[in-house]
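[step 3/7] fold_predict: job queued, chain A
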Amino acid sequence: MKTLYLIRHAKSSWSFDLSDHDRPLGKRGRKDVIKMGNHLTSQQAPPEVFISSTASRAFYTALHICDQLKIDEGNIRLDKSLYHAGAGEILEIVKNAPNCQRLAIFGHNPGFTSAANALANQTFDNVPTCGIVGINFNVNYWKDVEFGTGILTFFYFPKEI
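[step 4/7] structure written:
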């Protein structure tokens, strides 16, 4: 059994002096990511491997979640292909993930909503900022994950917590 945590970055700042890639977390984002990290800690086993988009807001979401889970930030692997990745690209990242039971991927919409829907046969309208989707797969290796084979186990987002 494998568990995938798709974690959309927390709310970002809309500073017009920075490129989209470099936008940091905003005040609400920093508050939400701490709340969501605490909730994840109380409800689920922690991920073992973390893969994040190189975008500042995704990376800092991963850093804050690691901090809440008391996991060394050195466990975060950066993958520039997650920035603006679609469902197919996200599936390839999952298939090529290192061996672990629980994998967390940090990235962006619309790709994360599309991937959650495709992987777990769901119809989410939107995975909101700092939303966390948990999907189980009855496989031994990440390379065996396919669209439609996952089972949704949880969907957490800040306004619900």
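[step 5/7] annotate
The chain has one domain: 2-156.
The first helix runs from residue 27 to 43.
exit 0
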